[in-house]
Structure formats: C-alpha cells, structure tokens
Amino acid sequence: MSLIFIDKIPANLRTEFEKKLRAVCTNLKIRNPNWLMALMWAESRFIPTAKAPDSSATGLIQFLESTASEIGYSTAQIAKMNVVEQLVPVEKYLSLQIKRYGMPDNGYELYELVHYPAAYKKANSFVLYSKGSAAYNANKLDYDKDGNVTVFELKTFLEKSINPYYDTSFLNQTESGQNVNQFIQGVPNFLLWLVVISFFFFTGFSLLKPGSWKAFRIMLVGMFKR
C-alpha cells in the first residue's frame, strides 16, 4: 500500500521518511502506516515547525510542552528537527501512549490517542471538551454548534482533513485492506455456527482432535483473504 500524502514530504527526504515511518509502525504494531500519515496530516500538514497560535503545540503531531517533556524533549528541540528526525519523538510518544491505553484498532483511535487520550475508544457521543475551555477555543471542532465537541466530531474533523484527497475507508482497514476480525464480528452468530459445524462434518474432524481448531482457523483466514 502506498502512503497517502507522501508527495507532501520534501523530495530529498521522501525515501528516508517512508522507510522510517514504516519502521515506526512495525515497531509499534500499528497495522496501517496510513493511519499515522493521516494523523500527522490532520495535525500539522507535515510541517515540522508547525506551531499552534494559542498553545505550546508544536511539530508533526503537535507536541505540547508537557507531552514533549515526558519523552525527554522540549518543543523548541522538536521544532528544530526535520520530518525524518521528528519521527523519533513521535515513536517514543506513541509507544508511551499505547502502553498506557492499549493498541488502536483503527485510524480514528490512533488520532484519539494523540489528540485527546481521555476520549480513546469512547462512544461517538462522548464529550471531549465544552464551550469556554481552552481546548474548545483552540480546536474549533463544534460542527453542530451545541457547545460540546464529541468523539464523532473529532472523527469528522479527521475525515474532512483527508476527504478532498483520498477515500477515508482506509481508516478502518489494515494495510492489506482486510480485517478478518471485523468481518467475523459482522456475521450473524447462526452463520458462524453453520460454518463451524459444516467444516467438522465434511472434513471428519472431531472437536477434540488435536490441531483441528488450528486447521479450522487457517482455513477461515484463507477464505477471507481471497
């Protein structure tokens, strides 16, 4: 899968950036590198010196002074790094957040993990911040003008950042474009049982036979990858 917005990276750094970004995602077990690309595009447009006008937020993923200090940096140090160099503190911070909150299952959750961790894996109706708060004033995400910014509106912002250029379906997909677990979750229970019973009936496997469940899992994954 090619990286979205890779053309926005300076040509002389593009190859090194892609190699490093893919390595970061492999190290952190982020299942689609474009989730991280989307995050950085939404936060900074890949401008390593990007600085919020009304906070200390700086760099590719808009490090606050407090979050930068957690991983041994200052925002001034981060602002001096190019897009490749900044992937080092990006990896350190994401590693810290994943250890705290768990592995993101999609691009939306990766964005929540950085933008507002308290909203991580919360329902769409969960309120991040409300009118009168510094975060509300800084982010301008209250699309329905009800005085609250919800998880749904945060997701909407991420999609709006990407939509003019790319289809946003990748935010719910692994790099291969498939997610077997999500597929299975969407199948009615009776159909899953029908598949299981049919498999053991036609192959002669016993539920107690060693290796039968492993064989079934391999077969099921193979079916859904076609």
Automatic annotation (TrEMBL):
Keywords: Membrane, Transmembrane, Transmembrane helix
Domain Transglycosylase SLT, residue spans: 32-76
Residue ranges the record marks as coiled coil: none
Name this protein carries in UniProt: Transglycosylase SLT domain-containing protein
Natural source organism: Pseudarcicella hirudinis
The keyword ATP-binding belongs to this UniProt entry's keyword annotation: no
Ranges that cross the membrane: 190-208
Superkingdom field: Bacteria
A Pfam family recorded for this sequence: SLT
